[in-house]
Amino acid sequence: MPLPHKRQIKIYTYRDYASWPEEERCEIIDGVLYMQAAPSRIHQEILMELSRQIANYLAGKPCKVYPAPFCVRLPDGDEKSDKDIKTVVEPDISIVCDQSKLDEQGCIGAPDMIIEITSPSSVRKDRLQKFYKYEKAGVREYWIVEPEEKLVSVFVLGANNKYGRPDIYTEGDEIKVSIFPDLIISLKGIF
Questions:
Q1: SS3 state of residue 65
Q2: Number of helices and strands (H, E) in the chain?
Q3: Does 7 map to a domain?
Q4: Can you give the CATH number for the domain in which 76 is found?
Q5: pTM, whole model, 2 decimals?
Q6: Is 182 within a domain?
Q7: 8 lies in some domain
Q8: Which of 151, 155, 156 is nearest to 172 (CA)?
Q9: Per residue in 89-123, pLDDT tens?
Q10: Is 108 a domain residue?
């Protein structure tokens, strides 16, 4: 009697992601597929206000802000081509200063700054899986916005290429963006 075959687990890549319909909201982290639900109204209001403040500051500057959906491919370095990348995310907000990382599909490599707005279904992924992916890729500043708690955790990449202890902000606070010393984001209208 033959032994059962060990079940093969599908490893997804950017090649798969690029073949799916545009209206499919999903991410791939280390080859694992994660479907995404449509964001809530509050999520979208926070996204729009943060994007507005950042875009107003960046007007006329070389850095650009990209709200979701915006494809960010994070190579591990062992891929033979772009299509083999096994981590493809759609951060809520990406800021890219190095224009050579941009192509028609989005960004290849680490944006300078990423903001993720959590939802009940994404908090674990944002705090753990994406946190370590962004740190390893070299995202210089990473914000985790928690709408229900009205908190923003700001992580800045240190000299050791690790995120240190976060600075925590809440409604009414102002955040000085570390990668742009003269940009201050007001949280008054955010929550």
A1: strand
A2: 4, 14
A3: no
A4: 3.90.1570.10
A5: 0.92
A6: yes
A7: no
A8: 151
A9: 999 999 999 999 999 999 999 999 999 999 988 88
A10: yes
